[in-house]
Amino acid sequence: HSIVELIRAKRDKRELSENQIKAFISKLVCTNEEDRVHDSQIGAFLMAAFLNGFTFLETSYLTQAMTYSGFTFSWPQEWRGRVVDKHSTGGVGDKVSLILAPALAACGLKVPMVSGRSLDFTGGTLDKLESIPGFSVSFSPDKMRKIVEDAGCCIVGQTEDLVPADKLLYRIRDTTATVEHEDLISASVISKKAAESLDALVLDIKAGSGAFMKDIESARHLALNMVKIGNTFGMKVTGVITRMDTPLGNAVGNALEVAEAIDALQNKGPPDLHEIVLTLGGVLIQSTGYAESLDEGKKQIEESIASGSALKIFHRMIIGQGTSPTVAQELCYGDKWKCLPRAQSIRNITAESSGYLENIDAMAVAKVCHALGCGRTQPGMSVKFEPGVVLRKKPGDLVAQGDILMELHNQEISNGVLVNLIKSLQDACLIVQNPPEPKPLIIETLV
Ligand code: URA
Question: What is the mean pLDDT of the chain?
C-alpha cells in the first residue's frame, strides 16, 4: 500500500519524505519475497522519478538509503587519506577504469572500485572485464578488502551485500528507458562510491552525442549535483567534464576494449585515452596531497605506465579476481589474443570521399555495437564479448576515398542486418574539405 502511495506521490509531482524513500529502498532489497516491491512497481517509480525529477533533498535521501542498503567499508588507519576512486557517467569506448585503477595503485593509492555494467547504449566496465577468462566481479566485502590489500586495487560490481539497491535499480533502469536522468545517475554513482568510504573521488562527466548528457550545460549541472552530494559523505569530489562526441580510443566492444586497455598499460595506447587517464589520475593524486600540482600528479601516473608498474598491478589484480596465472601472464606479457574471445569475421568500412575526417559519431557506433550484442535489451541477459568496432582513423585525420575508416567485428549476425550496420557506420563518418578545428577533450574541471 505504501509503495503505491509513493509511486502516486511521485507521479503527482509531490516531494517524498526521508521515511518514504528509506521504506522504498528497504522494500527493494528485502529478502522476504512477500514484502518486496514488484519489478512493475520499480519500473513505475523510476519512470515517475524520470519524468518529474527529485529535489536535492530527495536525491540526498535516496543516495543515503542506497549507500546503506548494504555494507560500507572502513579501511586500515594507515590508508587514511589514500583511498580514492574514479567513476564515469558512461560513454563509448570508455575503458579508462581498467588503466587508471592499477595506475593509481602503482602510485601508492588504494582503489576499491565498485563499477557498473553496460547501461543503455554505453559500455560497462564489468562486462568488458568479464571477457577475461576466469575473471569475476562478484566478491564478499571481506574478499574485496583482501584483493585491495594485496594488489592495491580491485574492480568489482554491486552485490547482495554491497549497494544492492543500485544493483536492482540499475538493472531495471537499463531496460525501462530511465537511465539518463541527472538525479538517478547521481544517486547511482555516489551511492557506490560512498559505500567504498573514499577520501577522494574524481568523476568523469561525459558530454556529447555518446553520453547521457548531450551538451556541456547539462553535464555541468550533473557534475555540480554529484559533487555536492558526494561532499555530504565527506569525500573530496572533483568533476571533470570530458568530450564524448567520438568514441574514446579506437576500440569499442567488450574484449576489444580490454585489449586496448592492455595496450595502454603497455604504454602503446591511443593518445586521447592516455590524456584522460593522466588527467583524471593527476586530479586524484593532487586531491590526496600526494602531488603539489596537477602536472606533478599526471607525471606520477605517466611514470607508473611507462615503467610497467601499472601493468604489474593489473596482472596481480586479475589473478586476485580469479584469472589463472597462466592466462594473466599471456594476457599482459604474451599474446593477449590467445586468451581473449575474438570475432569470426571482420568487415571494413571505407571512406566514400576524400577530405578530412571531422567526426565519427559516438552514438551511431554505440548503437551498432549494441545491435551486435555488446549490451542488453532485457534485464540480466548475457552480453557478447567478441563483437565491436575498431576505428582506424580519428577526427582530424586526412583520408582518401577508399581508405579504411573502421572495422566491424561481428559474430553470428545475418548478412541482411550486417548491411544495415555497415551503412550506419558509413553515415557516422563526417568527411569535410577543410581541416576541422581541434576540440579539447578535457572541457572543464569543477570542485
Ligand atoms: N554510471 C552509474 O554507475 N550509474 C549511472 O546511472 C550512470 C553511470
Answer: 96
For CA atoms 144, 146, 149, 153, give the dihedral sign. negative
Contacts of 204 (CB under 8 A, 6+ apart): 86, 87, 88, 89, 91, 94, 96, 240, 242, 276, 280
Which amino acid is present at 343?
Answer: A
Q: Is residue 439 part of a domain?
A: no
> Which ligand 1 atom is the nearest neighbour of the CA of 115?
3
Catalytic residues: 87, 166, 173, 188, 192
Query: Could you give the angle at the alpha carbon of 119 between the alpha carbons of 106 and 110, nearest 5°?
Result: 20
250 lines ligand 1 (CB under 6 A): no
Any atom of ligand 1 within 6 Å of the Cβ of 116: yes
What span, in angstroms and rounded, lies between the C-alpha atoms of 165 and 93? 27
Same structural domain, 96 and 29: no
Q: Answer whether residue 311 shows pLDDT above 90.
A: yes
CA 121 – ligand 1 centroid, Å: 12
Average pLDDT over residues 333-359: 96
User: For 437, which DSSP code?
Assistant: P
User: With a 6 A CB cut-off, is 119 part of the ligand 1 pocket?
Assistant: yes
- What residues make up the domain containing 228? 77-333
- CB of 375 within 6 A of ligand 1: the answer is no
- The answer to the question of residue 269 being in a domain is yes
Question: Is the C-beta atom of 59 inside 6 A of ligand 1?
Answer: no
- 132-180 per-position pLDDT tens digit: 999 999 999 999 999 999 999 999 999 999 999 999 999 999 889 999 9
Strands 404-410 and 442-446: unpaired
| CA 178/CA 169 separation, integer angstroms | 10
Atom of ligand 1 nearest to the CA of 173: 6
- Domain boundary among the residues 266, 300, 333 is at 333
Residues 242 and 275 in one domain: yes
What's the CA-to-centroid distance between 178 and ligand 1, angstroms?
Answer: 11
Position 68 in a domain? no
Locate the ligand 1 atom nearest the alpha carbon of residue 179 and give its number: 6
Tell me how far the alpha carbon of residue 151 lies from the centroid of ligand 1, in angstroms.
25
Q: Report the number of distinct structural domains present in the chain.
A: 3
- The answer on 358 and 321 residing in a single domain is no
